[in-house]
Amino acid sequence: MRTLLLLLSFFAVAATAGENQILLKDRPGKNQVVGQCAICHSLDYITMNTKIPDRAGWEKTVNKMINVMGAPIDDADKKIIIDYLAQNYGK
Amino acid sequence: MVDRRDFIKKSAGILAGFGGLTLLQRSGLAAATGTEESTVMDTLSSKGALIKKTYRPPNYETPVNYFDAPFTPNNLFFVRYHNAVIPEVKAAEWRLRIGGDAISTPLELTLEQLRKDFKQVEIAALCLCSGNRRGLFQPPVSGVQWGSGAMGNARWRGVRLKDVLAGAGIEKSALEVSLDGADSGVLKTAPDFVKSLPLAKALDENTLIAFEMNGEPLPHWNGFPARLIIPGWTATYWMKHLTAVNVISKPFDGFWMKTAYRIPKDRFPSGQFRSQETGTAMPITEMVVNSLITNLVDGQTLPAAKSMEIKGVAWDSGNGIAQVEVSTDGGVSWYQATLKQDYGRFSWRQWHQVFEPKHPGECRIIARATSHSGASQPLEPIPNPSGYHHNAVQKITIQLA
Q: How many CB contacts within 8 angstroms connect chain A with chain B?
């Protein structure tokens, strides 16, 4: 938890003014996506790839973030995040 | 395909909706995949307005019209990072560490030592992101949706990597030279952005540790205080904020070599980096022959009764550009464009062609470069999983009225 707080405080410092204007679709799962993905990168990484990956593609990306980049996403959140990305930004 | 005029209208509407974001990307529009973010202009500290692809890590491309100049101004040079933690390195505190298991005497150098103890060299070279024009692939490929502006031409001043390594004593076992920079991921679990070079490329007389760009210190966003320059190779190896160079006896097996920046062996020339090749894949290395029209925009309307100039740039991995052919009738007939001043084989080459329109209507303009090795641009990009090496001839349709 302490680590997470440290990370979140870092995020608060690192987030640029412009990135606050990126609005993800207001659907179930958005909170998990914002909370997890935006720790390391701005959310335009998602909107920029709108309709490019299909469900399998988004699943592969989320798995890469967890397994390669070490994103601390548990299995429950992982499913929510993949569903959100596939439904709202998938091909 | 997105209908371009519709798309421009749509984008303009979106931009108007944002308010204040009035600068539309020019030729880069042809590259967009339809997301509003692709046309947002934004300014990083010490930079002019660039086309924002992502805020964090910062990925910004240069509007194509700036490529009309032989050298891309430092404040308009594209920015590309994989990691969001990018320290502002202080020149006095910066140290370059030379080490690795195939070095006999590890060294630590200050910027002052680097500048004074070695012969300085200046090379004009194109810095080109491997994924430049990824956004033009059809079907689309995931990743940063670059238009045509993830590149820039500059005069790089620095010292030869081989001169620096010589002082540290390279052992016979040396195979590769790995490069690390000061940037890192937010999570410490993320693989550090480390690249490696085959020993021969590291020792090439054109491989530099550069500390100046176009006569000025490197901008922070382009690698201050020192970065690697590997002329002819894509920019993934041009490590910014260079902190460590390790000469090693085994293939470097980090994520950014083993998994990322790889291309299928059967579709591109191989053999540049044998120690990193597998049966089917290899790292991207040399740039492929390519060109870009810099002064016309797809869908533009121009007066039919007026002579016009078609301008652009062409480049390859260092063989040099032999010719650029321009067609104004969709490829039926071709003209030899005039090549402008040659700044060296690693620089891009500017070219221009005068066009006297004969009648109003639609006009399809194509440019095609050929290098001194005989390689020329394909009609369609060569598909590959990560969307690298997009070098298809550019087709621009303009209306003459």
A: 82
